[in-house]
Here is the input.
Amino acid sequence: MESDFRKQVGERLMNLRSNNNLSQEMLANQADLDRSYISRIERGIISPSVENLSKICNVLNTSLSKFFHDF
Amino acid sequence: MESDFRKQVGERLMNLRSNNNLSQEMLANQADLDRSYISRIERGIISPSVENLSKICNVLNTSLSKFFHDF
Here is the structure.
């Protein structure tokens, strides 16, 4: 259940990043985060802080409310 | 800026918790988290993981999309 939640968040992030034609490294640099951190979120290994996910959403031209629209 | 973000999240949590007539301890117990963790979120000291905020939203009868409706 909790792992499913992390996987859902990770898949959504990966899809949004791909739609923006950004590599994990490009996204990480623009959001001032580590590439390995992005990778671990996308694989559902960790759950990002809302603050870091907000930074990520800014780079991906979206908002937390849009990211979680069906959560 | 980043600290403002944490404060906004903290204030929203505190308001929602009060509206649900729950103490920090009651919320923490129901969400399976520590009371001090809830306290640090509400004071804007830390940013919760999206997974833990999701647990908190469940207890408060809301969703992540509603929590972040204007973020």
